[in-house]
Amino acid sequence: MMKNTILTLVLALSLAPSAHAEGNAADTFHLVREVVIEKGSIPDPATIERLNDEDFVIAGRMPKDKAAWATYVDRNGTVRWRYTMTSVNPEPGGSYPEFVGAMATPDGGVLLCGRMDLGQPRKPAISGMLVKLNETGQLISKQFVTPQAGSNVAQVSFLDGCVAWLGGFALTGGVTRYAAGGQRTDFHWIAAVNADGTVKWQKLISKQLVGGGAPGQVRSMPEGNLLVSVMQGEETEVILVDAQGELRARSILPARFRLVQSLNPQANPELFACYGGKSRGELVYLTMDLRISKETDCHLHRVTAAVRLSTRCNCIA
Question: Which residues neighbour 201 within 8 Å (Cβ) at sequence distance 6 or greater?
């Protein structure tokens, strides 16, 4: 039997930290509509990006087809276009290629970022990729991005995400290098990209937390800064870099925190962590130099909306 993937668009009428009763209608999510975006295919979504006031791009991969995948859905729930990209090298297996982010371009198109394996089955070479599409989802250009490494250095790089930044875009990820003697060094990888998709510069910043870890998150900050957070084990490393890619602040938080994407571009950094069997959580507010300014404990409650379950957080004083 064919399976459908359903995207549920949810409008939050209001959601404010409070100690209100769970039945307070003003403090819940309301289901707006459900939109079928794929029939007969089973995509693996990695991200949903809001491009403007009400339009979205959902992106990830099609595992069965071994293709990166993205779909544009407008404010009425209409699928405007669908784009897939197979590997330029059909030999490697695994989960690549895939898209991990999407950004609106000034000409009305979309810039997709992702990763692709350009290596061999037993010698992977994961590369970041940038794919530019026009307003109807037609390919304009594609390019591969990876940090340069010396001849005696083995390197593994992963592009984790992208965000609009300084009139262009920023790419972020992680790089691990192995010297000839086997010594390992882990880095944050940051690249600045012009509005036309060309790469201006790339920087590597040494990590304090080393190892595999989860894909990082990124947010544009005031004064041209960039905030990057990466979970490793039971800790989270957060860094702030300036418009030239220079490190300005760093903080290590003692839990697995997710970066909150605030609708206010001037807001200070906020991160959220679930714990206690995902029934409780903690919201942490940071200063612009990444010092903790406030911590708030939260209870998570299940809320039924049609046939789906979602969560909300009532922060308790």
Answer: 191, 192, 245
Whole-angstrom Cα distance, residue 58 to residue 142?
Answer: 19
Report DSSP state, residue 234: T
pLDDT bin (cut points 50, 70, 90) of residue 308 is very low
* Pairwise CA distance, residues 69 & 66, whole Å: 10
What mean pLDDT comes out for the span 107-134?
Answer: 89
Q: Could you tell me the CA-to-CA distances from 221 to 35, 161, 164, 174, 218 in Å, in that order?
A: 33, 15, 11, 20, 10
- The residue type found at 229 is S
Q: Which residues pair with 69 in a beta bridge?
A: 60, 84
In degrees, rounded to 5, the angle at the alpha carbon of residue 232 between the alpha carbons of residues 259 and 207 is 90
Mean pLDDT along residues 295-303? 63
Backbone angles phi, psi at 12, to 5 degrees: -90, 105
Backbone angles phi, psi at 314, to 5 degrees: -100, 110
Q: How far apart are CA 189 and CA 157, in angstroms?
A: 8
Mean pLDDT across the stretch 66-86? 91
Distances (CA, A) of 115 to 35, 98, 160: 27, 6, 8
Query: Is residue 265 reached through a cis peptide bond, with omega within 30 degrees of 0 on the bond before it?
Result: no
Q: How far apart are the first and last CA of the chain?
A: 50
In our burial notation (b when 16+ CB lie closer than 10 A, e otherwise), range 23-33 reads eeeebbbeeee
Q: Kindly state the tokens that stand for 100.
A: 């991990």
Select from 181, 136, 130, 127 the least CA-distant residue to 157: 127
In the chain, the amino acid numbered 183 is Q
d(CA 88, CA 43): 20
